[in-house]
């Protein structure tokens, strides 16, 4: 039985990853691992039910991935991150023809996070 998926996203700079994922988006670092002090970082970040692994290891994944993250209260998320004044991203909310509202943010490594709030039609 399958339970859930944990995506692995490629990162190249630990400081930029922390600035984006923790300072800007509000994820928390659950754990981090290096085989030795001067080896690449592998860490897990999470927020609510979303878990993402971030890896500096070249063989784990390729930059340029896209994640669709279902969310509620997209407007509140947008307002919260807008207050951060992150100089590399100022995303807006888009109304889509497929009855969702979406906010797309690209991390410093070319990975896209699409936060999606779906409409319920009656």
Query: What is the H/E order?
Result: EHEEEEHEEE
Mean pLDDT, to the nearest integer, reads 94
Which range best describes the helical content: under 10%, 10-25%, 25-40%, 40-55%, 55-70% or over 70%? Answer: 10-25%
Main sheet record: 4 strands, mixed
How many helices? The count is 2
Number of strands: 8
Strand order of the largest sheet: 1-4-3-2
DSSP strand (E) fraction?
25-35%
| Computed CA radius of gyration, to the nearest angstrom | 15 Å
Low-pLDDT ranges: none
Keywords: Antibiotic resistance
Pfam families: Glyoxalase_7
Protein name: Bleomycin resistance protein
InterPro entries: Bleomycin-R (IPR000335), Glyas_Bleomycin-R_OHBP_Dase (IPR029068), VOC_core (IPR037523)
Give structural notes.
16% of the residues are buried. By secondary structure, the chain is α/β, with parallel strands linked by helices. The radius of gyration is 15 Å and the shape is globular. It contains two helices and eight strands, in the order βαββββαβββ. The mean pLDDT is 94. The chain is 16% helix and 34% strand. This is Bleomycin resistance protein. Belongs to the bleomycin resistance protein family. InterPro entries: Bleomycin-R, Glyas_Bleomycin-R_OHBP_Dase, VOC_core.
Brief descriptors of the model:
122 residues, alpha/beta, four-stranded mixed β-sheet, 2 helices, 8 strands, globular
